[in-house]
UniProtKB/TrEMBL annotation:
GO molecular function: DNA binding
Ranges where the Response regulatory domain occurs: 8-124
Entries under SUPFAM superfamilies matching the protein: C-terminal effector domain of the bipartite response regulators, CheY-like
4-aspartylphosphate: modified positions: D59
Biological processes, Gene Ontology terms: phosphorelay signal transduction system; regulation of DNA-templated transcription
Keywords noted in UniProt: DNA-binding, Phosphoprotein, Transcription, Transcription regulation
Pfam families per the UniProt record, alphabetical: GerE, Response_reg
Name of this protein: Two component transcriptional regulator, LuxR family
Organism: Flavobacterium swingsii
C-alpha cells in the first residue's frame, strides 16, 4: 500500500553493522525515509524530535542510556513518535515492561530482516506489531487462569463467540482509540463501550486491553 507521505524513521543500536543492514532493507521501500541513526541512547529523544521522526526503531541494550531509560524519557516527552523495540532478548518480564512503557512493537533481531517492513507499516497505521516468535509469550503474559468452562472451549469457539459489535470495538481498541473515540465512531455511549470491553476481556480470558490486542493480533482478527 502506497503511503501519502513517507514514514520518517530513526534507528538506534550500538552495532553499526546492524544499522547498515536495516538501512539496506528499508531502502527497498520508497515509503520509508531514514532521517537519522544513533549508536547509544544519550540524547536520543532530542534527536528524534529534531529529526521529526514518526517511528524510532531501538535496541534495549545500548551504552550511555539503555532502551528502558529512553522509553521513560519518551513518556515524559509525551511520545513524540512511536517506538518499535528491536532486541536480541525475548524475556517475558522485559517484553511486559516495554509494553507498559508505551512501545508499539517488539521484534527479535533474528527475524528483523523479514519482518521489519511489516512492523513499520503496521505501527504507522496505529496498530501494534509483535513478531511471531514472541506473540505466544506476550499472550501468556496477559492471559488469566482459565476456568473449567473456558478450558473446554477451543480457540475457534472463543473467536466464534465474538459478536460483530465486539469485533468492531476490538479492532478500534487495537488501534489505541479512546473510549470517547469509539463511542463517537459507533454511535454508542462510553459506558456501553466499557461494558463491551469488559465482556471481551472476560470472554477471551485476558487481564487488560493489551491482552485483547494480543489475542486479536495472534488470531489475525485485526485488519487495517
Amino acid at each position: 500500500m502506497k503511503m501519502e507521505n513517507k514514514i520518517k524513521i530513526h534507528l538506534a543500536d550500538d552495532h553499526q553493522v546492524l544499522i547498515d543492514g536495516i538501512l539496506a532493507v528499508l531502502k527497498t521501500n520508497s515509503d520509508f525515509e531514514v532521517v537519522g541513526f544513533s549508536l547509544n541512547g544519550e540524547g536520543l529523544v532530542d534527536r528524534v524530535v529534531r529529526n521529526k521522526a514518526d517511528i524510532l526503531i531501538m535496541d534495549i541494550n545500548m551504552p550511555e542510556k539503555d532502551g528502558i531509560q529512553v522509553l521513560r524519557e519518551m513518556n515524559e516527552a509525551g511520545f513524540p513518535c512511536k517506538v518499535i523495540i528491536l532486541s536480541s532478548y525475548d524475556d517475558a518480564k522485559l517484553i511486559k515492561e516495554v509494553i507498559k512503557l508505551g512501545a508499539s512493537g517488539y521484534l527479535t533481531k533474528q527475524c528483523a530482516g523479514e519482518n521489519i517492513i511489516d512492523a513499520i507499516t503496521t505501527v504507522a497505521y496505529g496498530n501494534q506489531y509483535f513478531s511471531d516468535t514472541i506473540k505466544d509469550k506476550i499472550f501468556n503474559i496477559y492471559t488469566g487462569n482459565h476456568n473449567d468452562h473456558n478450558q473446554a472451549l477451543n480457540t475457534e469457539d472463543l473467536i466464534s463467540s465474538i459478536t460483530t459489535r465486539e469485533l468492531e470495538i476490538l479492532k478500534l481498541i487495537s488501534q489505541e482509540r479512546s473510549g470517547k473515540y469509539i463511542s463517537d465512531s459507533l454511535n454508542i455511549s462510553v459506558n456501553t463501550v466499557e461494558t463491551h470491553r469488559k465482556n471481551l476481556m472476560k470472554k477471551l480470558n485476558v487481564k487488560s486491553s493489551v491482552g485483547l490486542v494480543i489475542f486479536a493480533a495472534k488470531h489475525n482478527l485485526i485488519t487495517n
